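Hey,
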Amino acid sequence: MLFLLFVGSGAAALIYEIVWFQLLELFIGSSSVSIGVLLGTFMGGMCLGSLLLSRIVSTRRHPLRVYASLELAIGACGLSLLFVMPFIGRLYIAWAADGFTGFLLRGVAAGICLLPPTLAMGATLPAVARSVEATPEGVSTLGFLYAGNIAGGVFGSLLAGFYLLRVHDMAFATYVAVTLNLMLAVAAVALAGGLGDRGPEAGAGRAEARRHPESTSSQAGVAVDRDRGLWRGASRRDAAVYVAVALSGFCALAGEVIWTRLLGLLFGATVYTFSLILAVFLIGLGIGSTVGSIVSTRTRPRVALGWCQMLLVAAIAWTAHEVSVSLPYWPINPAISTDISLNFKLDFVRALWAVLLPALLSGASFPLALASVAKAGQDPGRLVGGIYAANTIGAVAGALASSLLLVGWVGSQHAQQIMMAVSAAAGLCVLGSAVADPSATTGARSLSVSAIVAALVLAAILTRGVPPVSPMLVAHGRFAATLLGQSGEIIYVGEGLQSSVAVSRLPNGNLGYHNAGKIQASSAPEDMRLQRMLGHFTTLVPEHPRSVLVIGCGAGVTAGAVSIDPMVEHVTIAEIEPLVPRVVSTYFAAQNHDVVRNPKVHIRIDDARHFLLTTREKFDAITSDPLDPWVKGAATLYTKEFFEAARDHLNPGGVVTLFVQLYDSSPASIKSEVATFFDVFRGGIIAGNTFHGIGYDTVLLGQTGPSRIDLDVVEGRLERSDYTAVAASLREIGIASAVDLFATYAGRATDLTPWTRDASINRDRDLRLQYLAGLGLNMNESDAVYAEILKYRRFPADLFAGSDAAVGRLRERIEHPR
């Protein structure tokens, strides 16, 4: 029954974690700094909860009644956060600042929201631990409960990612988790009543009090050891266990962050991929915890813990090799099947193959550490709280170090080598303390020292052999095997704070910018046409485009097209990954007019949503070219609330333009993007970019106030001497006049209402788009979707103005396209 309670508790906790992170990222951002703040706050709260339980709650309280109270508290917090978080978000946005102050404010916002429920979450295992004795058998039981909690986490992760948030929204997912908390609380109270409230005899510490009546209440849970010298020696050996389990937590979370990032390239960085990888990692932890619980009763747990850390060195080496050298080149073409569920199954198996082994060993470390320091008469709550806290502190450090420092500074290869060194140090720490045990014989000591030295030598060899990240994996992700030898030369690979990027050069000389494991921009004609259309629409439509915000730097071509407009005085580029403007865009200097060195261009390294929500600046135009909507987190730049924020940051007559791809996407997700944009900009239009006559991608354009485009005014600008660079930029993509530019018109919001009637509006509360787009990863129905859009195209006589000749030419081009 306790096992089942912890399964439910783990499921609720993972649902909450996914929902809370998604809610908080809406206002504090999804940059690596923000994610680091969220991880640190969430896990730090659980650490504090595990430590404080035994110090605040009396051992006289029935463990299951304490557990029930904690579950009720978690449910109450979960329900209240649905209403509190938006209020905290508004306060944060009002006070947001840059630099260290901004970092602190993010921490304060995350702390207010996450600390109360996570304190209760961290206290649940120590609370129930008081129902068992601090013996090998009792500790083994706690290991099984920990495994049950992880098993519930697997279920919660998959349930939230594949059903609750895909079909419903964050509120519904929260209600499910709250219902689980209530059911668990009721079940725990019923179980406590069935067992009887045993009062002082309910826990191991109180059982020890019966055996040692001379012990005072302040000494409850501490074994009476009359030999103070031996006690101090045992304490030093116990300290080695706490250090080792903390280092184990460091390696576990650092590995999860690094391997999730690399496997996200290989599988496609969708919300489903992250749920699958998290589930696989938790499965490994759960199985490992179960095995560790069994082993702890049948061997010397301290020695087993030490060798577990030594074996983890080899396991990390295995995963590093498989992720960087083996898996990317398995002969698999993920685009063969349009049934995405087959890809999910394949990705699940590949993730198991790669990361199960280190996850197993990490999971085994917790029960082995518990057994290593357990002594009869201890308060099990304090015992579990201490080990859990040490493990969690290490996990927080590992998560923060890997996401904020290691990968960005030294790369994933060296980061994994650091993990291996840390794991070897953890093993040496525990095995060294075991060798120093006075009860060990001289022969056994010599044999142990020889084995440890051999293990350290092997660890050094394995650490040296960790391979660098595969350039093909960074550049082409899930298509690395199918494009091997056909993708030209990869001339740059970089692992940044937020993402891994690459630049390639094809035999014909075209450059490609790669992010999220695919080409995001290139100098190929079809891509250059889109990027420059996006930039020139942004500055040629508004009457006075003095200040422009560019969301997403990419290859810099769109920003470059914006920057060369002589009426533009100030350009702000919001880019989340520092490597993109600093390195990538310099490779495209010839195509982007060397935009990053333009004195009127200012680059802000920040999540674009966070920047737009927190800036008080207004713009004459905003253009957005974010990552594919199936990339986890990108959908926040396509929500109705984000488009409303963009509209509110426009000066009168201002314009917003948005890139919408038609390839690698389902009709449902394309409809969602278009319908959501038009729900805010009801007079908006859509322009098409075709390739060999086939629909390729589109540009959405919305304007504050009524839209009216004067063809003669735009043509007059292009004929001015100071617009020579703009006119030349358009001619390079086959557009010689204002009529050519606006002949790409494909429809408007009012005409497309029948087509978008059944579309899902992407809102902050559900982020429906990322779930729709993640299911259409292998679809390529761009031409069919574009043909469907064109069925509703009519010449908008009230939109275009100018001379009769110009309007007539445009009408002819739209109604009778060549």
